[in-house]
Design brief:
With 310 residues, this protein is of the alpha/beta class. The chain contains 13 helices and 9 strands. The strands form 2 sheets. A 5-stranded parallel sheet has the order 7-6-5-8-9. Strands 2-1-3-4 form a 4-stranded parallel sheet, sandwiched between helices. Strand 5, helix 7 and strand 6 form a beta-alpha-beta unit. The longest helix has 19 residues. It is globular and about 55 Å long.
């Protein structure tokens, strides 16, 4: 039995297998319309969601299965009345696969330890592997390849999306460049950089971290940004963080340093005027809604792979 906990745990070969399947799922949806017939996905939500819930639930429906939405705020697990281990052991008797969108990565690891069905990380404070699989699929669709491309991430380097992009990108032979303010509160974790340096050495890619946004984005094929206010950031820090990150805002001037045919990505939700300007996210280089759509196809591929139904 396999889980999807982090792309750190998946080999380049496994990532390629799922991306190829996601491409086929997108091109030939009817081929998989009964692949999860009479199967049930449990969707455990601690964090808010739009794309995650809709894409997982629609994906199971389109493959002939069923999805159950379970909000921890109204559950014994969320109230502390029942342990994670007992909850997941019980749920495993009823369903075929579990996905969870949680605050603490450690809670997801505990779920995976005790579940007897596959567990999918639909976001934790540590990683967001489903998003990055969808991103890689979108990049490959637009650029025809992954290996050799430069992906520049601008903004908050100390977050789950940045770290997952670094894992996925370097394992697939991309040159991943991160532009973020200096300091451990804003830059990618040192252990992630070290791991990705090793992955890049094996794949022919590279990883580069800088506090200079122009150096980070220079000649990029793909430009990526994400929210400056992740779910765990207190609201009272917003003003200070906006001031800190504003030099990394992806605007027309900064985009001019990327390649002329560079694509722009944001995993959404997005705030125009913060991490990017409206002219960028709503402009011709933006593929944010193609990227969002691929959550459906990539996650179908993950479910099919983990459940042995491909």
């Amino acid at each position: 039995m396999e889980h999807l906990i982090s792309l750190k745990k998946w080999s380049p070969e496994k990532i390629r297998e799922v991306l190829d399947l996601a491409k086929d799922v997108k091109s030939n949806p009817a081929k998989y319309q009964d692949a999860m017939a009479r199967k049930t996905l449990l969707m455990i939500f601690e964090k808010p969601s739009l794309r995650t819930r809709l894409s997982f639930e629609a994906g199971m429906t389109q493959m002939g299965g069923h999805a159950i939405y379970y909000n921890t705020s109204t559950s014994p697990m969320g109230s502390g009345k029942e342990s994670i281990s007992d909850s997941v052991k019980t749920a495993s008797r009823f369903v075929d696969v579990i996905m969870a969108r949680l605050f603490k990565h450690q809670d997801l690891l505990e779920m995976a330890d005790y579940a007897t069905v596959p567990v999918i990380n639909a976001l934790t404070d540590d990683s967001h592997p489903c998003q990055i699989l969808a991103d890689l699929q979108a990049i490959e669709e637009k650029k025809g390849k992954l290996a050799g491309l430069k992906l520049a991430y601008l903004g908050d380097g100390f977050n789950n999306v940045t770290h997952s992009l670094m894992f996925g990108g370097t394992k697939m032979g991309m040159h991943v460049s991160v532009g973020s303010p200096a300091g451990e509160d804003y830059s990618p974790r040192a252990d992630v950089v070290a791991d990705c340096t090793a992955y890049a050495a094996a794949s022919g890619g590279s990883v580069f971290v800088t506090d200079d946004p122009v150096k980070a984005i220079k000649d990029a094929d793909v430009v990526y940004t994400d929210s400056w206010m992740s779910y765990h950031i207190p609201k009272d820090q917003e003003e200070a963080r906006i001031a800190k990150f504003m030099p990394y805002q992806v605007n027309r001037e900064l985009m001019a340093h990327a390649k002329p045919d560079a694509i722009f990505m944001n995993c959404l939700p997005a705030i125009r005027g913060c991490e990017q300007t409206a002219e960028v996210i709503d402009g011709p280089q933006s593929i944010v809604f193609d990227e969002a759509e691929n959550r459906l196809h990539a996650q179908k591929a993950v479910i099919l792979t983990l459940c042995g139904a491909a």
